[in-house]
# Entry
Amino acid sequence: MLDADFFRRWLVAAAASVEREADRLTELDSAIGDADHGSNLRRGFTAVTAVLDEDAPATPGAVLTLAGRQLISTVGGASGPLYGTLLRRTGKALGEEAEVTRERFAEAFAAGVAAVGQLGGAGAGDKTMLDALLPATEVLAASFDDAAEAARAGAEATVPLQARKGRASYLGERSIGHQDPGATSAALLVEALARTARNGGAA
Ligand code: ADP
Ligand code: MG
# Structure
């Protein structure tokens, strides 16, 4: 079962990944965006770990909702509201339960990913974070490790795509040949989830 502490540890692990990979994320965003994706997420996830340090919510839903709110209020770029919505909607779908199964989390996460699609109007193949999140969602109920692998593969598969949403879409065909920064960071988040589960806490 997954409890509030599992989700807190996931977000702390995600923040560490973002910190480590921030320069790479910004470099990817400099090719097809405005070179701020790493700094946007670094600011957001630093604020998430700070708020979770101050206040340790008692349920998985409350941890994710609080983290999502924090991302929305601290990140100026498009990715803040999108990742914030992902976490908030996932948290809301988990309700008040003190512990959830992986299957239940997978269902809630799918609702969160659907909300990202609704907010940004993007779908599969538009060269966004959804190209990592959607394939991960499909296998999350079966295995966190498989979800991490699917997200990584999905992020890599954005290279030949032309962006149809977000800032990169302004480049038209010139967006082809570069990996999407948001899909890359989404893969980091799912990889952090798998690592957290491997390090104990996910039965
Ligand atoms: P900004 O584009 O405002 O500078 P960031 O650089 O932080 O914001 O984030 C860019 C990433 O956000 C993109 O690489 C893409 O994955 C994601 N993104 C942008 N627009 C959308 C959208 N409409 N739907 C889903 N993801 C999007
Ligand atoms: Mg940007």
Remarks:
- The longest helix spans residues 4-32.
